[in-house]
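Continuing the batch. This is chain 6 of the set; chains 1 through 5 are on the previous pages. Same settings as before, nothing changed between runs. Recording input and output for traceability.
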Amino acid sequence: MSPARLAGDRVSLRPAEEQDLERIREIMACPGVAPWWWTFDPAECLAEIRSPGPECRPYVIEHDGEVVGLIQYGEELTRGYRHASIDLALHDDHQGRGLGSDALRTMARHLFEEAGHHRITIDPAVVNRRAVRCYESVGFRPVGVMRAYEQGADGTWHDGLLMDLLAEELR
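Output for chain 6:
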């Protein structure tokens, strides 16, 4: 069961609710977000909000009472491979202020301390340097490039950077 709210230093995270869908859609449409999340599907997001499972548990990121982003995690529960993964999207107006790294730290702390994971992965596009710098600031390390990892809206395939974080590396 997901906790009701996770408190960070500057942000709080709470499970996304149906009434958050329009704000999430706005965030995903931002010029600084949309290129990295081109496959955003409101119907799929609504289904994940209504019935979160181990593959995706969406949370909204709140700062000063406003929903400023989305952070979600998935869990691989197979014995011997157990770990979690995180995805993050932050509204353009709130990027570059440390809110994304605070949200990542907050979620990672929950996944390590409460959910019992020892490793978390994240997979930004290789060319998304802003995201990579944010993830590195919390302790994520590059593991390798996944060639032709995801298909862009233009139909071409783009490389992804696999990054991971072990519990003892969280900053």
